[in-house]
Specification:
Family: Belongs to the FPP/GGPP synthase family.
Structural class: mainly alpha
Order of helices and strands: HHHHEEHHHHHHHHHHH
Organism: Methylocystis heyeri
Number of strands: 2
Number of domains: 1
Shape: globular
CATH class: Mainly Alpha
GO molecular function, one term: prenyltransferase activity
Radius of gyration: 19 Å
Strand order of the largest sheet: 1-2
Distance between the termini: 26 Å
CATH superfamily: Farnesyl Diphosphate Synthase
Helix content: over 70%
Strand content: under 5%
Number of helices: 15
Protein name: Probable farnesyl diphosphate synthase
CATH architecture: Orthogonal Bundle
Keywords: Isoprene biosynthesis, Magnesium, Metal-binding, Transferase
Length: 310
Amino acid sequence: MNAEDRADHFIGRLDAAAAAVEQKLDALLAPSTLKGEIERPARLLEAIRYATLGGGKRLRPFLVIESAALFGLSGEGPLRAGCALEMVHCYSLVHDDLPAMDDDDLRRGRPTAHKAFDEATAILAGDALLTYAFDVLADPATHPDAAVRANLVLALARAAGLGGMVGGQALDLAAESAQKPLNQQEILTLQAMKTGALLRFAVDAGAILGAADQRQAATLTRYGAALGAAFQVADDILDAEGDAAALGKRAGKDAERGKATLVGLLGLEAAKARRDALVEEAIAALEETGLGDATATLAEAARFVALRNS
């Protein structure tokens, strides 16, 4: 399969996964209550659905689905785990867009949740999505083995929380007003937490669901870490070079706010070289899984992360 065919095959699988995720999220975010729930307030649910449905490439759940597929697992379990991860990702976007955080008015080409509704409703929508994600993972419908479900919950909590995404956001905000610019290692740590942790969890989740052996799980973690780092560098490059119409959000905001990025520290060309090296690092990790051609789609995902335009 040549490069063009590989890319087309990847896009087809990405689109199919996105459609399945959209359908499952739509069902999970329906007005009907679950056992133990009392009511789903209409306006809050509308805001949650606004923030979650109808947008995004669904890369994170795609990585869960494809990683689980390496071990012969498909269907409801990986799909639900991917939806749980997407809920955490969408919650983070809602909260990041708030005036107290990154103060953005546009997301995916339309008003951000706090602009479309109000700040209080946006905060509550994010809170509800975060909580619901763990509900979905803990449900036996995700996996019949309670130990597997517990491992998923633990891994996502650590990726999303104090030592992961939330901690990374705190470091990001602190860097904006720091007296001394962050050095390269500090930026890498921030980005590994804020962006990389959830992408790494995506492939870790597939390994947990698929009962990967210790070596395979470790190499997938390395892949996820390199992919996450490449994704963030590519995002920084897009912010510097892209336009708002393509990005679906305001371009150039990193420089405006004094964000700590590798583009700002190293310059565009060095940042691009690092992005490309990280993609190769991710692909090399896949080769060490011993799973051969089965990893081709994940390898293409790494290339996609580097070449995307939004």
